[in-house]
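Today's session is about reading a structure prediction critically. Students often jump straight to the picture, but the first step is always the sequence itself: look for stretches that repeat, for charged clusters, for runs of hydrophobic residues. Only then move on to the predicted structure, which in these notes is written as discrete structure tokens rather than atom positions. Here is the chain we will use throughout the hour.
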Amino acid sequence: MTVALDSNGQGPAAVADTVAANAISVAAPFAMAGMPTAAPRRRLSRRQWIRLALFSVLLVLLGAAGGFGTAALTTPVYAAHADVLYLLTREQATGFLREDRSLSTQLVLFKSRTVLQPVADDWRKPIDDVTKAVTTAVLQESEDIQVEFVDTDPVRAQKMLEAIVLRYLEVSNNDERGDLRNYLDGQLREVLALESQVRSEGQIRAAAMGPLVDREQWLRRQLDELRLSDLAGPRARVLVAPYVDSEPIRPQPLVAAGSGALAGIVVALLAAAVIARRLTRP
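Below is the predicted structure for this chain, in token form.
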């Protein structure tokens, strides 16, 4: 069977496909011309803009008022302050590392149960609450330890800080050297008593006098070194007596009002965007 070809060498099926494609391409523009186009959004009127602005201002004012009111209803917290001078030993190795370690030890001592437990018991406060209320820090490049105690009662804050500082001074200045001094004093008294006994016996125990004298001299040297260490050693003393701020540290109504206003601005922007989108629908 013979198939007739056109002038371009295409068969009947190929010619039909070409005709159909040409028909679709010609009809497409007319079909698109008949499709509905998206209507433009409406513009906000002057009155609508004014209403949105007033609504946004109202939200900001409500946020500021809410923050201020919350701060005003919150129980105020007062801070008592004190400065303690901790003198480093001249005999100690110098350098920032050594000073940092010595002063850091004092910061730990300030918040230890050895210092805080008696104060908490006297004021009938939980030790955890007292520990959280105490803040210590070393003034940069100094030997000044700054102590802060917070409480809802300013008078109580100052009284408790005074008790904490006194307890710290007692513990810090009465370290193990006091026990060592007592031991050396006791040993010296015993040696002196033995020397008196040997002297009373005359020549009978004269040979025992030499070791006792050597022991006495060694004990006296140890006591002298300990006394010198006490004179040059670290001693803590009050630099600034405890006092309390006249104004509470928190809450701060103005700061709270500013935070509330900032939150109101964010809410107002979001609300205005949503409302404006709905008002400008076609």
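Discussion point for the tutorial: The first strand starts at residue 78 and ends at 86.
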